[in-house]
Design brief:
seven-stranded parallel beta sheet, 8 helices, alpha/beta
């Protein structure tokens, strides 16, 4: 089967491509550097020719409200039009658990706009809502840092390892469209501030964590339900300790 992975050279994309190729599929890792650009439309028709499945893992280079909305709307429209022209049978996109609950966040609004385009496209689809990746912990700490203190939301979240996300994305690519949403999450809910503190300690980072229920997260305040999945998510295998140990071995 020919599968096109948009954003196929990124964190999740490269791992998903590797898994699908190991299963014997013809997989194109599409990215602007490789001549496939969902914003300009360059190379899309050629990339999608003969493809049965498209997995959209592209992310906006800018997280500024207007830019991120323009990215996901333009990319979504161009990609879905190319899907239709190529006769793609299954369109898959990676989105975020709780995006619909956080309308104050420009990034979350942009992801919801992307999802709406997919739902209205008439193409069979699966939208995967993932929780945050363990790989984001450093960025979360950095975004709240002033001096030697980082202020982080004390709300619960349920982060997942990128390897587990890629396992599930590859599985979804080889499954029938659900024409709805699948939620995926890590094994345990934990307070964001607690896990960031654990991460900083594990990496010998001297910064202190200030746990604040009102701390900003991508332009919005969180509560304990904001980023936690519903009743029946697919659960990744790796806990923080497993992920951290494996990432230490890789470096």
């Amino acid at each position: 089967m020919k599968i096109v992975v948009i954003g196929g050279t990124g964190l999740i994309g490269s791992k998903t491509v590797e898994r699908l190729r190991k299963k014997g599929h013809q997989v194109l890792a599409a990215s602007p550097n490789g001549g496939v650009n969902t914003i300009t439309g360059e190379g899309l028709a050629e990339a999608l020719a003969g493809a049965q499945v498209v997995v959209d893992l592209a992310n906006s280079p800018s997280f500024e409200d207007k830019a991120v909305l323009e990215f996901f709307e333009t990319s979504g429209r161009n990609l879905l039009a190319a899907d239709k022209a190529a006769g793609v049978k299954h369109h898959i996109a990676l989105s975020i658990v709780g995006a619909e609950r956080l309308p104050k966040s420009g990034y979350m609004r942009a992801k919801m706009a992307q999802e709406k385009l997919i739902r209205n496209s008439g193409i069979p689809f699966t939208i995967v809502h993932s929780t945050q990746f363990f790989e984001f912990l450093g960025g979360i700490a950095q975004s709240g840092t002033v001096g030697d203190v980082t202020t982080v939301s004390s709300a619960y979240f349920q982060p997942i390892a990128s390897d587990d996300v890629a396992d599930i994305m590859a599985d979804v690519a080889l499954s029938q469209p659900v024409n709805g949403v699948i939620e995926i999450a890590g094994p345990v809910p934990v307070r964001m501030s607690d896990l960031v503190a654990q991460f900083l300690k594990a990496t010998n980072d001297p910064r202190k964590v200030n746990a604040d229920p009102h701390a900003d997260y991508f332009g919005t305040e969180l509560d304990d339900r904001s980023l936690v999945p519903g009743d029946h998510p697919r659960i990744g295998a790796k806990r923080f300790e497993d992920w951290f140990g494996a990432s230490l071995q890789r470096h």
